[in-house]
Amino acid sequence: MFKFFSAAKDDNTAASFSEDEARDLIWAKALEEKALKSQDADNSAFREITSQTAHELGEGASYSKFLDVRAGHVIEFIKTKIGKAANEPKLIPFRSFFWGLAVVMFVGGVLTNEFSVTGNKINLLYPPLLGVILWNIFIYCVLFANFLLNRGKKPFMGIGIRRALGSLFQKIQTRGAGHDSALSAFYQEWLVMQGPLLKTRVAEMFHFAAFAFGLGLIASIGIHGWGTEYTVGWESTWLADKPAFVAAVIKLFYGLVPFNSELFSSLTPEAAALMNFSAGRGVNASPWLLQMFYVLSAVVLIPRLLLTIYSSLKAGFLRKHFSINLESPYYSNILRQWKGKTMLIQVIPFSYPLNVSVKQGIEHLAQSLHPENSKIVFSEAAHEDTKLPDLGGAEQTEALAVFAMTSTPEAEVQGKFIQELKKKSQAASAFMRIIVDTSGFEARFANTPQRIRERKKNWSDFLDKYGVSFAFVNLTNADINEAAKQFEQI
Hints:
Radius of gyration: 31 Å
Structural class: alpha/beta
Number of helices: 17
Order of helices and strands: EHHHHEEHHHEHHHEHEHEHEEHEHHEH
Strand content: 5-15%
Shape: elongated
Strand order of the largest sheet: 8-7-9-10-11
Number of strands: 11
C-alpha cells in the first residue's frame, strides 16, 4: 500500500523529517533570517550554535538529526537571548474538526431519515434516500477517474468542498501572520510543504463524515423500525402513471446489492402500481428496510470506512516523511560548516559572455548564498557544441549555469545543455542550479511589464521540466533574499 505514498531518502540531497521536526526546522530558519535582517544577531552567533550542536552530537549523527537539534537550539536562542521571538505558528485543531464534523454528519443522517419518512410511510423515490446512493457513487467515480488518469499528478477533477475546507484550515493557521515577517516567511514555505498531508487529512475527514452520515441514517431507520410499523411504497407527481418506470428505478438503485432477489423478481409494473400510496397503504417494510441496510452498507459504510483507513494510513506515513531539500543555500551552508567542507562554485554561462558588472553580481549573489568556505570559478561561455568543463576540485561543488532571459529557450539548445550539465553534476556529486539573468530583458522592456511576465513564464515552463533549482535574478542589482526563496522552491 505504501508504494502509493511519496517519501524522500535520507541521502546527500534530501532528508526525511516528521511533521513536528519539519515545522521546527522551517520556523527556526524564518527566525534566524529575521534576526539577521533586523541585526538582532549576526552570523557568528548562529555559527556558534552550529558548532555547539556538532560538539553535542559528534560526526556520526545523521543530517536530519543534526538539523533538528540545531533548529531547537536556534528557537531557544531567539527566545532567551534575543527576547524578540515572534508568535509561534498555530496548529490546526484537526482532531476537533474531525470528530465535530463526524457528529454533525451522524445527526444529519438521522434527520435525513426523519425528513424522508411521513408518519410511518417510507417513500422509495424520496430524493434524500436516492441522493445518498447517487452522491457516493459519483464520489467513487471521481476518485477512480483521478487515480486512473492522473497517476499521482494534479487531479483533473476535484471536490470543491474539500478545497474549501483545506483553504479554511490554512486561514486558521495563518491568521495574524501578516503582521510578523518571521511568521509570513514560515507560512510561505510551510503551506507548500504541508499541502499533501493537509489534502490527505481533509480526505480522511470527509470519508469518515460520510461513513457517520450513513451510520446515522441506518441507525435512525433501525431504531424507529423497532417501535413503528413502517410501510414502504412510492408516490410521485411526475411518475404517478408510470409504474413500469418506477419499478425499473427501484430495481436499479435498491438492487445494487444482490440480496433478496425474490423481492425484485416479484416487482412487476403491476406490483409497483399497487405500492403507490395513492392506491393503498404500501407493503410491509421489513424486507425493504433490510435491503436498504445492505445497499447503504455496500455503497456508503464499507467503502467509506476503507477509504478512511487508507487516508489515515497515508496521513500517518506523510506525517513521518517531510522531505527537506538539503541543496538549498540555507541548509547546505549549515551542513558544510558542520562537516568543515569547502564549496567550489563553478559558473558556466551558456551563449552569454559575462561582462564585469554581471560577474560582480554573480560573485555578490554566490558569496551571500554561500558565505562559509566557498570560492567562485568562472568558465568560458558554453555553446551548443562546447565541451563542458570538468566539475570538482573541492569537497563540494556547485555548478551554476547562467542564461540570459533575452534568449528564447529551446529543448534542442538550452535543454540539451541542461541535461548534459545535469548528468555531469550527478556523476561528480555536485549540486546544480540555474540563474536566468533578467537585467538585459528588463532594461529593454521596462515600460512593458507584461512582456517581462510573459518571458518569465516561458522560461519557468521550460525549466520546470528538468527538475533543477532555478531563479530569475537581475544580476546588476540582485535581490539576495528573493533569489534564495526561488532556489528553495524545488
